[in-house]
Every structure is written in structure tokens, then in C-alpha cells.
Amino acid sequence: NAEYMGYELNDEQRFAAAALAVRQAYRAPTPQDRHDALVTEALARFKSSKDFAFEAAATKDQATLLKFQAELAKRTGRQFEGWSLSETMFECACLNLLDVVERCREQFSVSPKRYFHILVRAFVASGNFKELEKLGKNKSPIGFKPFIDACAAAGRPNEAAKYVPKLPKADERVEAFVKLQLYREAADEALKARSVEMLENIAAVAPNEDVRSYVRVQIGKLAK
Predict the structure, then answer these.
(1) CA angle (146, 148, 149) in 5-degree steps
(2) What is the predicted pLDDT for the residue at 7?
(3) What pTM did the predictor assign?
């Protein structure tokens, strides 16, 4: 090792040595050994230059995640090592380990948008619509379209419909109801907005005469 022979390494060499230390850390036999190697070897090397501040922070986070995943494996009997932070949070949310998800959010400074996206996907994937509703009662940093889209993609239009009234604009609510094939609800929204154009657009895509008749009635109400 050149450092131990009295030679000063340049930044390129320091970076290469740190990257090698990361690769070697992941060859360690146990999660604890891998964590320790990341901290004592790779992290120490990245900290040797201020130019490696990003890599140092990323290595520190990865070491923390490894330790966290090892604890989680003991608690759940499931294997989490090798998963990203988002994948770990998603799986924990699917298992309804919401205290763990919250701990991850705080520990790794997860942004509100990323946090909400993970929870929405996880609650829908696990069929935990009760928790999704609880989440939807909060101010959403991602809006409510992701709630609607996730529920619709899962074949749960009635669950998706719960979040349509939370969309800020009438045309967005009408469009969402139409996509969910809830044409009467779409017509009701268009009536509230007093938009004949919206109603006519709904009638144009209505699947049967009953729906078209219902829409025409709403148009008639605006004509009075």
C-alpha cells in the first residue's frame, strides 16, 4: 500500500482505493462484517478528501441501511439485504410495519414526495385500503392523482373514486371519473361546473343509452 510506504496518493488514487474498499466490504461474510468494513475502510477513505463528500455520505447511508436491514431480518425472518432504501420501505409498508417505515423516513431524510409515493404503492399492492384512506386524509405533497391511478391499475375503481373529489379542478375530476368508467359521477361533476361542453364530451363516450339519457337530463338542467 503506497500510503504505508510514505507516498502521498493523489485524489484519483484515493478514490480508486475507496471504491476498491467498497467492493471488498461487500465480499465480507456477514452483514455485520460488511457494515464494519464499509465504515472502517471505505468511509474512512472517502473522508480523506472534501471532494468525495457525496461518496462519503452515500457510503455512510449504505452502511446504516445494511445494519438496519440486518435488524429488520431478525425481526421479520425475511431477507432485506441488497435491497434499496425505497424497496425496503415498500416491503415494510406492505407488511404494515409502519413504525419501521417512519424510522426509515427519519433516519434517511426521505422527502415527503418519495415517502407518499412509496406508501401509496405499498398500500394498494397489499390491499390495505384502510391505511390508504388514512394517508389520504393528510395534505398530500404528490396530490391525489397517484392515489387514483394506483387504485385504478389494481382494478379497484371504487377505491379510486374516493380520491377524485380531492382533485382541484372540475375538468380533472370529470376526466378521472370518465377514465374510471363512472359516467354518472362524471356528469354530476360537469353539472356542478355548469359545463355543457363537458357534458357533451361525456355523452360522446358514454357506453350505452341509459348513460347518454342521464347526461342529456343534466344538460337540460343547465338549459333552464
Answers:
(1) 65
(2) 45
(3) 0.81
